[in-house]
Amino acid sequence: MKVTQEVLDDIKRTTDQWRASDEKRDAGLPTEFPDVKRYDNISYGPAGEENLLDVYTPEDVTQSVPTIIDIHGGGNVYGSKELYQHYCLGWARHGFGVVNFNYRLAPQTIFPGALKDTALVAKWVADHGQDYHLDTNNVFIIGDSAGGTLAYQYLTAYANPKYRKALGLVSSGQLVVRGGALNSGFYFVKRSGAITPDSLMSTYFTPEMMQKYDQELHTENYVTPDFPPVYVLTANHDFLHDEGVRFDQFLLDHHLAHRFASFGTESDPREHVFQLNQRDAVAAKANQQQGEFFRSLFVEK
């Protein structure tokens, strides 16, 4: 699909608005903490700046710590590890090692490019995580919005070699994924009307790729009993709230271990990906609950 200048202009207008909102939310937040050690701009793949990752760990750690791989959101056209560093540093301050990475964005890179990058990151963690005291036996995948879609697809591929092979994803080697958190995600890509031709998402899930990967984009058909336990989060004013409800029902119907939670009330509502806000008490509660969910899945060596 040839991307028109009109679409490119729309992407720029929209992502400029998103960036302004994100920068306002995070203005003044520190990027260094005495209790966190950070390793920045590590290459995990061949795509230059788009294949860089950061690692954050508790300071002075001498033994391996449980590992979070965080997949940023942004409609597959926006986002970076720099924009997500505050959120990921928050996890490191609560005892996790965190991998925070860039991946290739649309419209330059279409499906399944970002998913292939996610698999490369997982392979990097399997190969190099122990050098940074990352516990490769207790790994958790987090994603929000478009990152939630990527996390869901990656977890499906992790548990189902057939799906991984169909999408051409590298194996995660000896990595052991214990669970995940899917935050304000988009799970049923092929649901009728889910992606309209004029949407930003259509520059990643292009009509050609939607046709080529028609079966694979019905990700739900590849979910197996080995799908890791997940915490599914949404909010009462999340524009993808109903996606979370649908996915909760899907997991219930298939007897898959999970927890579903929706935050916010009519008098004190919460929006899409509210959990990123490091200043919000409700976000802190949601993140705490997800941390407790992860800890319930730890396996000691």
Keyword list:
alpha/beta; 8-stranded mixed beta sheet; globular; 301 residues
SS-based class: alpha/beta
Computed CA radius of gyration, to the nearest angstrom: 18 Å
- The helix count comes to 8
How much strand content do the residues show?
A: 15-25%
What gap, in angstroms, lies between the N and C termini? Answer: 49 Å
Mean pLDDT: 96
The counted number of beta strands is 8
Q: Tell the overall outline.
A: globular
Q: Strand-and-helix sequence, N→C?
A: HEEEHEHEHHEHEHEH
Largest sheet: 8 strands, mixed
Percentage of helical residues? 25-40%
Low-confidence segments, ≥5 residues, pLDDT <50?
none
Sheet with the most strands: spatial strand order: 1-2-4-3-5-6-7-8
Write up what this structure looks like.
34% of the residues lie in helices and 19% in strands. It has eight helices and eight strands; from the N terminus they run αβββαβαβααβαβαβα. It has an eight-stranded mixed beta sheet with strand order 1-2-4-3-5-6-7-8, sandwiched between helices. The mean pLDDT is 96.
Produce the secondary structure layout.
Layout: H1 5-26, E1 36-43, E2 52-58, E3 65-71, H2 85-92, E4 97-101, H3 113-128, E5 134-144, H4 146-159, H5 161-167, E6 177-183, H6 207-212, E7 230-235, H7 241-253, E8 258-263, H8 281-295
Parallel strand pairs: 3-4, 3-5, 5-6, 6-7, 7-8
Antiparallel strand pairs: 1-2, 2-4
Helix pairs in contact: 3-4, 4-5
